[in-house]
Write a structure and sequence with these properties.
By secondary structure, the protein is mostly helical. The protein is built from 14 helices and five strands.
Amino acid sequence: MVTVASSPSPSTVRSGLRVVSAPVPRLVSIDVLRGLVMVIMALDHTRDFLSYARSSPEDVAHTTAALFFTRFVTHFCAPVFAFLAGTGAFLSTRRGKSLKQVSWFFLTRGLWLLVLEFTIVDFAWGFVPWAHAGVIWVLGWSMICMAAIVWLPTRWIAVFGLSMIAMHNLLDPIHPASFGKLDWLWVFLHSPGRVFITADSALSVRYVLIPWVGVMAAGFAFGALLLRPDRRTWILRIGICATILFFVLRGINLYGNGIAGWPERYAHSAGPWAVQSSLTLSVISFFNTLKYPPSLDYLLMTLGPALILLGLQDGIKTPGGVNRILQVFGRVPMFYYLLHIYLIHLLAIFISLAFHQPIWHGSVIAEFAQRPAGYGHGLPFIYAIWILAVAILYLPCRWFMELRSRHRDWAWLSYF
């Protein structure tokens, strides 16, 4: 039972267990965790733009331990960001926002993200027109769906979110072709692929709605647990249980990671793991879970440890050292996101010129085989540029964070 003391000027929301009234201060631990995944995300995109690799880091037949685990740590970014987007929305209902206001914010923020995806974000990847339905796309659609979902009791939102996460792999055998002329609908919902707008142009869809909507919904319901006085215990319990469940399901090797060979483009991550020619490759195979769409194994593997870290960080009042830096990035995630793609892309062009390498715009960064001969660098160089990029981003992000703090009445700032 959730029991929280009332305050003289409360905001009242439904917890799913009972109606509770109390103001909740901004949780530093959530900002720190969000900031951490934003920083790690920059590593992934620095690797995308600068690597000389000609195959996917998840391709067990061609990868190395260093390359794979550089990619592996970045898997935490999208699930944690989507989950905490829901959590932050729930907590905002404890800071004076009604459900109607939260619903409206979800709707308008979601539409705004769709506009950003097809303009500022897509252009940043290649400095050329390109239609790509990426992470901002799916966050936008998830928020639009959440605009309706938030009106349900919190316990039902939890059931909806967890059920979608746990059961969506049952949909894996369904192929878009099964829907005939409506095949594009299944591509949007669960099967990554291309949706042809004309004979010569197509929308590349990597991030599908199922189960990302469920991740955000689960994050929203999770916010209710943060109202409990024993929240740290609950966060750690959930994180530990999710992590253990990942090892159990992955060890059983029967369900939770898609179907081998489907979808064809991501077959190197789908299906069961297998013993390889070396221990290192066997470990890689075990942790090589499917992101497109995010399998149950993938989400347990990422959200479980993330919640453990959140629980360990719970209770921070005044962050110092690295946590203080991470808090800055975590307070302005969208501003950081938009800046970091342009910065890393410009750095990649500058580095190409400095090293007399062919300039590669990277508009198809997922197609490793299409990188020009002589382009790219190794991981030590990539890590150095990543640290440089994060250092450059700190001051503008701190400036924007302070701007938002000084002008809380400027509602439009909340959309960045």
